[in-house]
Amino acid sequence: MNFEQFNLHEKIIAGVKASGYIEPTPIQVESIPSIMEGRDVMGLAQTGTGKTAAFVLPILQRLLNGPRRVVRALIIAPTRELTEQTHEAIGQLGCKTGLRSLSIYGGVGIMPQIQALRTGVDIVSACPGRLLDHVNRKTINLSKIEVLVLDEADQMFDMGFLPDIRKIIKSLPNVRQTLLFSATMPADIRGLANDILRNPVSFQIGHSQPASTVAHTFYPVETQRKNVLLDKILADTETGPVLVFTRTKIRSKRVAQHLDQSGYKTAALHGNLSQSQRQKALDGFRSGRYKILVATDVAARGIDVRKVSHVINYDIPNTAEAYTHRIGRTGRACETGDAFTFVTCEDKILTRSIGKLLGGNVTYCSLEGFPDISAVLDGAAEGGRSRAKSGMRPNKPNRPAGSYSKEKSNRWNAQGRR
Ligand code: AMP
User: Fold this and answer.
1) Are the C-beta atoms of 304 and 292 separated by less than 8 Å?
2) Which of 114, 8, 120, 117 is nearest to 56 (CA)?
3) What 3-state DSSP class applies to 38?
4) Tens digits of residue pLDDT in 90-146
5) C-beta separation of 329 from 48 below 8 A
6) What is the domain extent for residue 243?
7) How many CB atoms within 10 Å of residue 159?
8) How far is Cα 134 from Cα 126, in angstroms, rounded to an integer?
């Protein structure tokens, strides 16, 4: 299976090569032909499956013909980071096409965006709030949109963007192609899909389960000793870049400070930072200047750092779905990763529900001097392999050090067309 079979224009194939993609991922195999036929699509796809290229490539192909410098494709996504990443993917995959892309989001000046829109662009990646602002100011013309993509629709719903999205859709032509991607399918997203998709082709890639390229370990710990556990794990484990998740902004700042003082090059990423501070943290993490990034859920949404070897849930996520999203940051694009989750007595219910989501694919591990899983969680180990042996050094990684980035696998879990 290769990209040539899609009959993409040679200029686009050149962009695929420049991106280093050799084989299409399952969601690309499944969806690119239908999208190229002009069909509407509903993709239930977990993060890290390659869905961005799955919609970007057919969009580039469509836009090669026809007028230039009018907005003909619109991608709406929940966060600035995701918007920026999609914009970058378009830049890379479309590097030989001459098509112009623009990202639009709040928290930065609106004038440069207005200026760029005046100059003329072909594809816009936008967050709903700022996009609606442009619509209201009439600084963007959406009357020529041919393709609309709603990316990470469930997250947009969680963030309260659905009313804005419905308003934006009203200013689009009725005749268009619509693609909706979501990691999960809550009722409201189904409702939106029913309203806006015409006879869609549906794909489900990997349910809403975390990528199967990730190994999951839960560590029982007392709340006040999380830093001690974190230090121990980092000292005992060989890692590549590490992403640590905390529940609050303040905690993300404090944990980052603690790690920095312990000698790890660390950055924090949370909603209290300015856009340029966020970008600096992200760029530094991507380039390897920071080995550890400590982030909150919203800030980390959509972060695409291919070589994250370990995700550490310093605080357990609030829902099983949020676990899927967090863990989607590792094990991306056929690479493998580890997910470590700190669990305390207060996390009993969440530990059970996430354990259930993982379907027994979780290892429970008690380190020497830390509580035993059964004592802390009172039966939460059901459904998983308990490896709770006090004193063992569990995370000499679940695979040989350094091999995580090389393991090739076809565990993308394509569920195929329904
Ligand atoms: P996404 O799910 O779109 O966020 O993509 C996850 C990661 O996979 C990104 O780093 C993409 O650049 C990468 N990717 C997408 N398609 C492919 C492919 N066919 N081969 C290798 N990497 C890919």
Assistant:
1) no
2) 8
3) coil
4) 999 999 999 999 999 999 999 999 999 999 999 999 999 999 999 999 999 999 999
5) yes
6) 214-415
7) 17
8) 10
Same domain as 162, residue 181: yes
The answer on 132 and 42 residing in a single domain is: yes
Same domain, 222 and 316: yes
Of the candidates 279, 328, 267, 265, which has an alpha carbon nearest to the alpha carbon of residue 301?
328
Identify whether residues 301 and 409 lie together within a single domain: yes
The predicted-structure confidence for 321-342, as pLDDT tens digits, reads as follows 678 778 876 665 546 688 999 9
Q: Whose CA is nearest to atom 12 of ligand 1?
A: 50
Between CA 189 and CA 367, with CA 328 as vertex, the angle to 5 degrees is 130
State the closest ligand 1 atom to the C-alpha of 49, by its place in the atom list counted from 1. 2
Please give the distance, rounded to the nearest whole angstrom, from the Cα atom of residue 48 to the centre of ligand 1. 7
CA of 30 to the centre of ligand 1 (A): 15
CA 339 / ligand 1 centre spacing (Å):
20
pTM above 0.85, yes or no: no
Using CA positions, which residue lies closest to atom 10 of ligand 1?
306
At which of 205, 231, 252 does a domain end? 205
Within this chain, do residues 175 and 280 fall inside the same structural domain, yes or no?
A: no
**CA-wise closest residue to 414 among 16, 51, 102, 26:** 26
| Same-domain check for residues 166 and 237 | no
For 47-72, give the secondary structure using H, E and C. CCCCHHHHHHHHHHHHHHCCCCCCCC
What's the CATH number where 111 sits? 3.40.50.300
- DSSP secondary structure letter of residue 325: H
Q: What is the pLDDT of residue 47?
A: 66
Residues with CB under 6 A from ligand 1: 21, 23-25, 28, 47-53, 304, 306, 332-333
Nearest CA, atom 20, ligand 1: 21
Domain boundary among 188, 205, 222: 205
Specify whether 193 is located in the same domain as 82: yes
- Please enumerate in sequence order all residues whose Cβ is within 8 A of that of 63, keeping only pairs 6 or more positions apart, or say none: 72, 73, 97, 99, 122, 123, 146
Q: How far is CA 311 from CA 128, 242, 296, 328, in A?
A: 28, 6, 12, 9
The amino acid sitting at 239 is T
Say whether both 187 and 265 belong to one domain. no
Q: How far is the CA of 209 from the centre of ligand 1 (A)?
A: 18
